[in-house]
Amino acid sequence: MRRPLRVMKFGGTSVGDAECIERAAKIVAAASGQGAVVVVVSAMSGVTNRLIEAAHRSQEGRQEEVAKLTDLLRIQHETALRTLIRDETRRAQVSGAMEQVIAETARLLQGTALLRELTPRARDAISSAGERLATPLVAGALCEAGLRSVAIDATELIVTDDHHGSAAPLLEQTHERAEARLRPLLADGIVPVATGFIGATTDGTLTTLGRGGSDYSATILGAALGADETIIWTDVDGVMTADPRLVPEARTLPEISYNEAAELAYFGAKVLHPKTLRPVTQAGVPVWIRNSFAPEKPGTKITPRGRPAGGGVKALTAIRDVALITVGGPGIVGVPDVVAKTFSTTARMRANVLLISQSSSQNDICFIIPLADAERTVAALRQAFASDLADQQVEHITVDPNIAIVAVVGENMRGTPGIAGRTFSTLGREGVNIIAIAQGSSEYNISFVVDVSAMQRAVAAVHKEFRLDERDLREENEAATYAEVGDGRRDDENRR
Ligand code: ADP
Ligand code: ASP
Ligand code: MG
């Protein structure tokens, strides 16, 4: 009988210190008793932020930051190493591999400080160090737990385009590379531990897939290898009805659909990178979100169809750090192709448009993009409309950074009347002012824009209105069968 293949990704908190890495190693050891496992790891928590911060300080010419950062990285990783690995030879090997990454990162930061220029390519190389430090540590811990394991740089596996900072994978070439590099190891019973978050162009230049991109790395590799499932181990029990930091009563959903998970991720549910489901959608293989701190819990299974929820609404999400840009007013009225001109500009700026709303006249459009893209996008829009606005006294392109998008998500909302009505009357009762509304024709979500100060109140009120905080016992009793990993339970799905 064919042994199942699983890709298991461990996020930053799940490899946050020696104790966490030991817990992760136990999960991998249990799983590799039942099938082949490819491990994908993120940087230890906090490391990527620190690296990016140091890159920016170096760009300002602050050389002293380099030594500060390398000391911190060394302490954090060497401390974990000392606890995790007792075998002296192995410890020296892992320490040597880590030291190489630290030295390379220091050189990149020094170069940046000298030139006072941080190119997208250097920024990617610097921010990749966290994953490149974590893999030898985790592979070493797996060896210590009695497995055979090797650390692999995903630059050898994931081929991408050259869009630094949010590179797109080239799936055919990735399939070839991953097969050639990983299949022989798997056949030998070795557990490969690959870096999440990174890839390389065809000519070998390192790229990153975007912040939080290790989830995406896991499904890219899962799809490339035709894995039976991908398991994303994190620090919550699964995908929840809302961000537990916003709504403490949020509960874990046993099963959701690809569409629902994608909508939640797109509108800010940090538990999944927005592109995570793309590689697996066509093959229809399940993705699990599970808690590495509580592996006995089943987690959330993400499947093509999901599981219908009674009231149609499955979950809510909210996204801040976005800006509302309005193009309109008398200066714009009568300008032909306002819409085309506006969105060709956002496309040129590669600004991700999260929501669009248009008033009845063709000439007043508002849309939302990430705050980080707002300044340069507004400047580009002002330039694009410069001749139209030349003789106008008033501002016609405005930007409001103090807003948030809240999205109400559920596949079964389609065909369930009254959801918009209930949502908006709840917000009315709460005194939350709605700035803009959008609903896609797919009807998987209704999203609305509120002042950022009202975001939490809006999410909590709508969560309560749709009774998402009440445990649905029927749903839980029917909970999907789940992978037997770390808790000794059977996985019926995998005995196909
Ligand atoms: P990792 O480091 O494992 O990738 P992340 O911090 O990126 O973990 O994502 C997990 C976090 O996502 C959780 O701790 C939780 O605070 C947040 N989160 C936001 N929305 C949701 C949601 N709907 N369900 C579960 N977690 C959510
Ligand atoms: N370490 C990367 C980040 O912090 C990738 C990830 O955690 O998924 O963005
Ligand atoms: Mg994450």
What does this structure look like?
This protein has helices spanning 18-32, 47-59, 64-84, 88-115, 120-127, 129-144, 171-187, 214-225, 258-266, 278-281, 338-348, 371-384, 386-389, 419-430, 455-465, 473-477, and strands at residues 5-10, 36-41, 149-152, 191-195, 198-200, 206-208, 229-234, 255-257, 287-291, 300-303, 315-327, 355-358, 365-370, 397-409, 434-439, 445-451. It contains 16 helices and 16 strands. The relative contact order is 0.11. 40% of the residues lie in helices and 19% in strands. The radius of gyration is 24 Å and the shape is globular. An 8-stranded mixed sheet has the order 3-4-2-1-7-9-10-8, sandwiched between helices. With 496 residues, the protein is an alpha/beta fold. It folds into 2 domains: 5-235, Carbamate kinase (3-Layer(aba) Sandwich); 315-465, VC0802-like. Residues 11-14, 42, 212, 234-236, 239-240, 242-245, 264, 269-271, 315, 317 line the site of adenosine-5'-diphosphate (ADP). Magnesium ion is lined by residues 11, 212, 215.
